[in-house]
Amino acid sequence: MYASTPDDERLALLALHFIPGLGNFTIRQLVSYCGSASQVFKTPKGKLQNIPGIGPKTAEQVVNGKPFEAAEKEWKRAAKENVQLIFYTDKNYPSRLKEISDAPSLLYVKGNVHLENPKTVGIVGTRKATAYGKERVDELVEGLVPHDVLVVSGLAYGIDIHAHRAALRCGLPTVGVMGSGIDVIYPAAHRETARKMIEHGGLISENPFGTAPDAHNFPQRNRIIAGLCDAIVVVEAAATGGALITAELANSYNRDVFAFPGSVGVATSEGCNYLIKTNRANLITSVKDLEYVMNWKTESQPEISKAALRDTSSLSESEVCVIEAMRTKSPIQIDELSWRTNIPVNQLAGILLNLEFGSWVKALPGRQYALAE
Question: Does this model's pTM top 0.85?
Fold first, then answer.
């Protein structure tokens, strides 16, 4: 559960998002000029109007108190529905997303998702997926399993939902980025898949609760998909549409873009063939092409260590949890181990130290740990 009562600064940050006409950039600019979100609301109206992009109407909206009323209701709703509010200034704001100039200043996140997953791939495409496209998705996702990839897409009909379902089937975490409020599952036919994703990944939106899936929200949604990922793979796409927008955005963010080629004259192949022909995407025919360009190497299965076979009955519950997680993957970085065990890093460091003293684990360079030999 998340905190039902925010501190003044976080409530002020949320209140800024309920001032009509304020976009992500202007919100960040206001906080920068004033020093903090709470200070924005303490700044006289006359001084606010001197800030670039803030006119008399906006300044009046800041000081009239209504944004705080809306923010308090939104916070209570988030706490009730177990939705986490992640602000741009938070330490757990996704580092990849923070790299892009038009990053959202607030994310609504629901589920059990590790947004700092070491490898993250977006899979996008047409809503009118063919059997060929679905086969490419299945093969790609299966090939990504050894890399423990986080699969990101847009929960839409066609390639998007097929990518989410393939990830769930293969045991990979998957995240759906929504063009609506996080409480408005669109399309409704994907509600059951969304429920499963919350258990094995999550949902993300930048929109307030209750936001309808209006058309103008989806190009905005696509920039989040592109920004969250190391690579974007376009499986099938028409000559125009959301998948091509996502690819263009990914290129502008210096992300690697891939596209599966398709038959000439087939509508769902026109977009992919165009991306390849104009050097806007790397040609991909299998996961090996992605591995080569991204320099992702599949680690060979390590030999079973003695620690993996030892009796854990003398260990504490937390220590057993750590050992079990490392039996699945070793070596492993402490941040990923924290995510897998749901133990905070500061507590995990002490547990690992005890296990190291007991010859259960060994510390490696780069904040990694492995089961002892």
Answer: no
